[in-house]
Amino acid sequence: MIEDILKKIVWLGHDGFRIDASKTVYIDPYQISDGPEADLILITHEHFDHCSPDDVAKVQHSGSVIVTEKDSATKLSGDVRVVKVGETLSIDNVKIEAVAAYNTNKEFHPKSNGWLGFIVEIDGVKVYHAGDTDFIPEMNNFNTDIALLPVSGTYVMTADEAVEAALAINPKIAIPMHYGAIVGGENDATQFKQALEGKVEVHIF
């Protein structure tokens, strides 16, 4: 089942993903070309490379539901649902849990902003999108099958810190993200994978 969902996950570059499962779910679409219409669009926080109204508009239709935090909600239109850390909601048999995402040793994403990561349960599989975050204590309590983790450093955790996060979360599969667009390169993803060899399976797109 997990492998089935993995095959349906599409990396859109940077932090953007699409899950082509029983529902079409986009997370932080940025600099995308047109794609299938979205059932759900999840936006982690208001920074331009995560909350991009122009990119949302490319896949949004009258039935699309957007789930996000209060700051991004002011930039978006349509059926926008605002959630806070710790809240869950279910939309068309997709369960969405809003979890914390923040910096611990830099100031780009303060905890006080209440910006988000998401744990999405779809077709019986839990997919965690970390958003822009460092390795935070909350990760020790996350239960997920697939974890999408930033690895580039600068604004988020480094590859080494992401390894610590992956070991704490212990997903069946970890996928590196947040590289190759604004900061970070393929070497960050490779370093992440090599460090987890024999411990956590890593899939690089």
In terms of per-residue confidence, which ranges show pLDDT below 50 for 5 or more consecutive residues? none
CATH homologous superfamily classification: Ribonuclease Z/Hydroxyacylglutathione hydrolase-like
- The strands making up the biggest β-sheet line up spatially as 7-8-9-10-11-12-13
Oligomer state of the chains in this structure? single chain
Q: pLDDT average, as an integer? A: 93
First-last Cα distance: 19 Å
SS content category:
alpha/beta
Radius of gyration, taken over Cα atoms and rounded to an integer in Å: 15 Å
Largest sheet: 7 strands, mixed
Helix-strand topology string: HEEEEHEHEEEEEEHEHE
Report the strand count: 13
> How many structural units, i.e. domains?
1
Q: How much β-strand is present in the residues?
A: 25-35%
User: Which overall shape is indicated by the principal axes computed on the Cα atoms?
Assistant: globular
**DSSP helical segment count:** 5
Could you name the CATH class? Alpha Beta
Give me the CATH architecture, please: 4-Layer Sandwich
User: What is the CATH third-level topology name?
Assistant: Metallo-beta-lactamase, Chain A
